[in-house]
């Protein structure tokens, strides 16, 4: 296996990880946005804060990893994408910054009006950001990014494949986040909230599945290279994603939320992996292959050493953090202790004798 293949594998592993972990993070904003008014949506918004609070910053480590590996290992294609797709990339970046800031500021808002404002910013940017990231992926997959980076700044990311990619990105994020949220709510004993979330997850899952299937139709003409790959070497991954997604919907319907988390992760990971396998060996479809875009061998070797060190030093910590948030060690114990402890005792108002 060539050095460029090994670096590309590390790069796309980061893309899959960000799609799953960052996707669940972004998708929580959809439920925050559609939770309802201040009083009606309070419980759901508290659940969103509780579920993503410990991990929302850590999830974006994968985006940094992807960008660093990309511009170091395949610098010319990174420059081409950053130039041609500057508009959606900047909008996605602004969304990430606004989302993180609003999520933090909402907790310390001095008034209800401020809390509502930051809540709207957090929820709206959580939906807008994956949409623009999806349009970037669609532009690359449909061959609209020239190797010279001189593509049209608007039509390059507003084609059919790009727009469908943005919608699918929002839908998959919402579906994945919903499965995690309903699992956390059920584990905490919030029966009413878990039932409401369950109904929403089923609707979102069916809608997203329908959009994904419908999206395959225009790909034949709008992205023929991607279509050939999806119906060829990547077909097993496409079928696996369909089976995993259908299984997730069925498990949620019968309230088997624990196993549904794993099948949901498998569904998203499979569809993203299918995209990568389908466009191989192109990095910029119909423009530049992996071998043509690769940097100097010494650079690729040093990059692989850095990736190996990250796997040894960083990955165990991230895995432990995810284990804490997805087990009783984090999600259930704090709330159960608060409930069992009851309200704090009233302060003694009697004057003390001197």
From TrEMBL:
Q: Where in the cell is it found?
A: Cell membrane
Region labeled Disordered — which residues?
334-354
Q: Source taxonomy lineage?
A: Bacteria, Bacillati, Actinomycetota, Actinomycetes, Propionibacteriales
Q: Which keywords accompany this UniProt record?
A: Cell membrane, Membrane, Transmembrane, Transmembrane helix
The protein's name is Cytochrome d ubiquinol oxidase subunit II
The membrane topology noted for this protein in its Swiss-Prot or TrEMBL record is: Multi-pass membrane protein
Record keyword Phosphoprotein present: no
Q: Where is the chain membrane-spanning?
A: 6-31, 78-105, 117-141, 161-181, 201-219, 234-254, 261-282, 302-323
Q: Name one Pfam family in it.
A: Cyt_bd_oxida_II
Assigned protein family: Belongs to the cytochrome ubiquinol oxidase subunit 2 family.
């Amino acid at each position: 296996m060539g050095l460029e293949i090994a670096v590309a594998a590390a790069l796309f592993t980061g893309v899959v990880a960000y799609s799953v972990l960052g996707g669940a993070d972004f998708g929580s904003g959809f439920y925050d946005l559609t939770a309802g008014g201040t009083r009606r949506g309070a419980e759901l918004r508290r659940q969103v804060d509780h579920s993503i609070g410990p991990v929302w910053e850590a999830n974006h480590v994968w985006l940094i990893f992807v960008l660093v590996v990309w511009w170091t290992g395949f610098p010319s294609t990174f420059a081409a994408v950053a130039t041609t797709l500057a508009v959606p990339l900047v909008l996605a970046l602004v969304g990430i910054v606004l989302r993180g800031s609003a999520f933090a500021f909402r907790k310390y808002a001095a008034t209800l009006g401020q809390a509502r404002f930051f809540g709207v910013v957090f929820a709206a940017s959580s939906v807008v950001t994956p949409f623009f990231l999806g349009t970037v992926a669609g532009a690359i997959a449909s061959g609209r990014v020239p190797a010279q980076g001189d593509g049209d700044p608007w039509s390059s990311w507003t084609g059919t494949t790009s727009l469908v990619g943005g919608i699918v990105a929002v839908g998959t994020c919402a579906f994945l986040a919903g499965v995690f949220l309903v699992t956390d709510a059920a584990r905490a004993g919030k029966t009413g909230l878990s039932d409401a979330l369950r109904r929403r997850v089923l609707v979102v899952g069916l809608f997203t599945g329908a959009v994904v299937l419908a999206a395959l139709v225009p790909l034949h003409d709008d992205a023929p290279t991607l279509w050939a790959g999806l119906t060829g070497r990547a077909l097993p991954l496409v079928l696996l994603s369909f089976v995993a997604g259908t299984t997730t919907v069925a498990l949620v319907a019968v309230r088997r939320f624990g196993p549904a988390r794993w099948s949901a992760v498998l569904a998203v990971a499979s569809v993203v992996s299918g995209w990568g396998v389908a466009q191989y060996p192109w990095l910029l479809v119909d423009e530049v292959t992996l071998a043509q875009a690769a940097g100097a061998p010494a650079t690729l070797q040093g990059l692989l050493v850095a990736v190996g060190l990250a796997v040894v030093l960083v990955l165990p910590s991230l895995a432990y953090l995810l284990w804490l948030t997805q087990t009783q060690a984090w999600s259930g114990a704090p709330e159960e202790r608060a409930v069992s402890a009851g309200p704090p005792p009233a302060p003694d108002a009697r004057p003390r004798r001197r």
